[in-house]
Structures are given as C-alpha cells and as structure tokens.
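Homework help board

Subject: predicted structure for assignment chain

Our instructor gave us this sequence and asked us to write out the predicted structure in token form, then describe one feature. I got the tokens but I'm not sure how to describe them. Can anyone check?
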Amino acid sequence: MCLGIPGQVIEILDPDNKLAKVDVAGVRRSVNLACIVDEAHPTESCVGDWVLVHVGFAMSRIDPEEARKTLALLTELGEAQAELDAMGATGER
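My token output:
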C-alpha cells in the first residue's frame, strides 16, 4: 500500500532540480516536485500549494480542504493505533 501524506510547499530550494521544502504536519523536509510541475505550473509557482508526498516526491496537488481532512484522519488513525499498542502492552484486547 502506498500512502501520500499532505504537506504544504513553503520554499523552493533548487528550481533547476525541482526541489522544495515542504511542511508535513510540522516536519519540514526536502521534496522533489518533478511530478507536479509543467509549463503551466512551473516550480516557482508551487509555493503555498498543498501536495501529497510519498517517498520524497510530491505526487499530486490537492486542495487545502482535502489536505485538512486527510491530516485529521491520519491523526485519528495514529491515536487509535497508539491506544491499541497500549492495550497490547497491558495484555488487554
């Protein structure tokens, strides 16, 4: 299964190599934008875009509302997993 995590492009690091800094839930990392740029939407115009990030690549642009919903769902899933892990550690199920 592949999982794209929403992040927001906050800075272009290297326009020639299509590299940008993306904020993913407060973690900032370098991401390649090659999959989402073209003549109509060049690298420099990506600042502020919300993107789905997978293994260091922005796979697609998404709207801010979709990003918010996805981040909320991922947070809920993480909280549920933490609860299951805690229950497993105490022998409860």
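Reply (TA_rk): Your tokens look well-formed. For the description, you could write something like this. The beta strands are 5-14, 19-24, 27-32, 50-54, 57-62. That's the kind of observation they're looking for.
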